[in-house]
Amino acid sequence: MKRSKGILNGKNRNIARGIKRITVNGYFKEFNVNDKVFIHIKPKNKLSIPHPKFNRKNGIIMGKKGKAYLVKVKDGKKDKMIEVLPAHLEYVNKG
Fold first, then answer.
1. Domain for residue 4, yes or no?
2. Would you give the distance in Å from CA 16 to the centre of its chain?
3. What domain count does the chain have?
C-alpha cells in the first residue's frame, strides 16, 4: 500500500494561488463578533493553518480563543466551528 504523505501533499500549489506577502499587521488584525470574514490560507505560516478544505470559504466570527478566532463555516449542510489565526482571515467586502 502506498504511504500517505499528509494532508498538504500536492496542495501547496493550490494554496499559494494569489498569495500576498504576510505583514506584521496581518497577525494583529482585530475582528468583532458577527463580522463576516473570508478564510484565505497563507502558506508562509504552515504550522497554524486550518484544514485545506476550508480555504477560500466565507464564515462568521463567533468568538475568540487565545490568539485565534472561532469561525462558523458551512460545510455541506452542517455548520462547523474552526479556529483560525487572524493572518488567514480577511474582511468580506460589503457591497
1. no
2. 13
3. 1
Whole-angstrom distance, CA of residue 42 vs CA of residue 34: 23
The domain containing residue 82 runs over which residues?
12-91
Report CA-CA distances (Å) from 92 to 5, 9, 34, 38: 34, 29, 12, 6
pLDDT digits (tens, 9 = 90+) for 32-54: 999 999 998 887 777 778 888 89
Is the pLDDT reported for residue 7 higher than 80?
no
Q: Please compute, for residue 7, the number of CA atoms within 13 A of its CA located in the half-sphere on the CB side.
A: 9
pLDDT of 25 higher than 90? no
Position 41 in a domain: yes
Contact 62, 35 (CB under 8 A): no
Q: What secondary structure letter does DSSP report for 50? A: P
What's residue 93's pLDDT? Answer: 77
